[in-house]
Amino acid sequence: MKILIINGPNLNLLGKREPEIYGNTTFENFYEQLKIQFPGVEFDYFQSNVEGLLINKLHEVGFMFQGIIFNAGAYTHTSLALADAIAAISTPVIEVHLSNVYAREEIRHNSTIASNCIGSISGFGMRSYELGVLYFTGFHN
Ligand code: DQA
Question: For the whole model, what pTM was predicted?
Fold first, then answer.
């Protein structure tokens, strides 16, 4: 099975960015471990700070892959275009966040994309992504 992980804006700085909120691990480190943990999964990873490139990537794989795990960063709270892109594709998308967005500022409590995703995982650090993979592998093996 093929799973794409997408990270949106500012998530290229994981490990350096506000470590008290997002932790000390780089995504690349975590990603290497994830591939070892799930040898049966063919992973792809994409990060961009540009909204249109995130949309292009959703379109590119969104009729081929079995699952997409998407941390849209701050676009989560603002982007109708990303919500539309998720609605347009047939691959199921899980919304993930490292931090517990509901324990943070009120502006982060709203997600424009959540209703077009199959579910949301928030607050488990890097393990939020792992939980998403567990969902897809459990339901497709
Ligand atoms: C985030 C939460 C968002 O509110 C924030 O803008 C991010 C990261 C998270 O993973 O916790 O960039 O998506």
Answer: 0.96
Question: What stretches of the chain adopt beta strand conformation (E)?
Answer: 2-7, 42-47, 67-71, 93-97, 119-122
99-137 confidence digits (pLDDT tens): 999 999 999 999 999 999 999 999 999 999 999 999 999
Which CATH number is 122's domain given? Answer: 3.40.50.9100
Instruction: For ligand 1, atom 8, name the residue with the nearest CA.
Output: 73
Q: Which is catalytic among the residues 31, 45, 75, 97?
A: 97
Q: Encoding tokens for residue 22?
A: 């997002």
29 Cα: distance to centroid of ligand 1 (angstroms) = 19
Alpha-carbon distance of 122 to 100, in angstroms, equals: 5
Q: How many domains does the chain contain in total?
A: 1
Flag whether 141 is in a domain: no
